[in-house]
Specification:
332 residues, alpha/beta, 8-stranded parallel barrel, 14 helices, 8 strands, globular
């Protein structure tokens, strides 16, 4: 996604505008934004997708985040008291404001078929299933996520409105084929048992990718719940999942990677889906950094008691003046 922001403003404030994505996610947008984008095809491209985690129960946060340029947004319903209605509104807000350039995958809170149906009916690009430990669980999810003959998902009469939201891309014979072939199923493995059964879990037809829940896995192993680590017991489990992913069609492995050190380690290990930040951490830590900077500047100024001979304007960083036209646009 190319940045939609004003270039002059970006340069003036030295905003960290990311380069365009390696994967052109807009190529996988659906005919109608009520439908899921073809996230399965994006996964098969083999490139690393970069996303952010959304936990704030507000579609306006999602609206702004959807314009940044992430390949996908990871909507976490497992660790937030988010209602299906709020989740649906967030998914549709991201689709609308990114114009299909940013996809939404949803970590559902339970194995219940209703959460699978609600999120896929809302147009989610995929679902992430936490605490996956057996092939039977994976089969249960596939059955709930796929329309016949691949599963038992129920026809959504208030989503697929005939003649309105049921447009078909070239080569597709029905809307059910679109849903079955576009939305991805990602089984999250985060226990020793799950790692030991990874080969069987990922071999279930319909499973498209996996995710390693490092925090819970490390807690179970008696380790600090960080996003990664060199411990032999942990790395043995990680390698079990990576081997299973490799043996089952070179499936992508997802994981959290907050901060430079974890991003570097996850990229080196071959993760192909990384969540590098979240709405909460970005909101909190940026405010902490700005507050720290302000307190330090005030403390330094007061320590000098204004007797250093400098005027207040002398300590303000020099900035290049905007042109008249740019000044006008910045006030709007």
């Amino acid at each position: 996604m190319a940045s939609r922001g004003n270039r002059a403003i970006q340069q003036f404030y030295k905003l960290p505008v990311p380069p365009p994505s390696q994967v052109k996610m807009a190529a996988y947008r659906p005919v109608c934004l009520d439908q899921p984008p073809d996230f399965r095809a994006a996964l098969k491209e083999g490139k690393t997708l970069v996303g952010s985690c959304m936990t704030i129960l507000n579609s306006d946060v999602a609206r702004f985040t959807s314009n940044i340029g992430f390949d996908f947004l990871f909507l976490d319903l497992e660790h937030t008291p988010m209602s299906p209605e709020t989740a649906r509104d967030i998914i549709r807000s991201v689709h609308a404001h990114s114009e299909g350039d940013t996809h939404v995958i949803v970590r559902i809170p339970t194995f219940g078929h209703e959460w699978v149906a609600w999120m896929l009916d809302a147009g989610a690009a995929g679902i992430v299933v936490p605490h996956s430990e057996t092939a039977e669980q994976a089969k249960q999810i596939v059955e709930a996520a796929k329309f016949p003959p691949l599963g038992k998902r129920s026809y959504p009469p208030f989503t697929a409105v005939p003649g309105l939201t049921d447009g078909l891309p070239k080569g597709k014979q029905s809307l059910y084929q679109v849903y079955n072939e576009h939305a991805a199923i990602i089984m999250q493995i985060e226990s020793k048992k799950g790692c030991e059964n990874a080969e069987e879990i990922l071999a279930v037809p319909g499973v498209d990718a996996t995710m390693i829940g490092a925090g819970d896995l490390r807690l179970e192993l008696g380790l600090p719940p960080t996003q990664d680590g060199p411990e032999a017991s942990y790395q043995t489990c990680v390698q079990q999942v990576f081997k299973a992913a490799k043996n089952n069609g070179d499936m992508p492995v997802f994981g959290f990677a907050f901060g430079p050190a974890f991003i570097e380690s996850k990229v080196k290990q071959g993760y192909r889906g990384i969540m590098v930040t979240s709405d909460v951490t970005a909101l909190v830590y940026k405010q902490m950094a700005d507050l720290k900077l302000a307190r330090e500047m005030i403390e330094a100024r007061e320590a000098n008691n204004g007797s250093d001979g400098k005027k207040t304007e002398d300590i303000v960083p020099e900035v290049e003046a905007l042109s008249v036209g740019e000044q006008d646009s910045s006030k709007s």
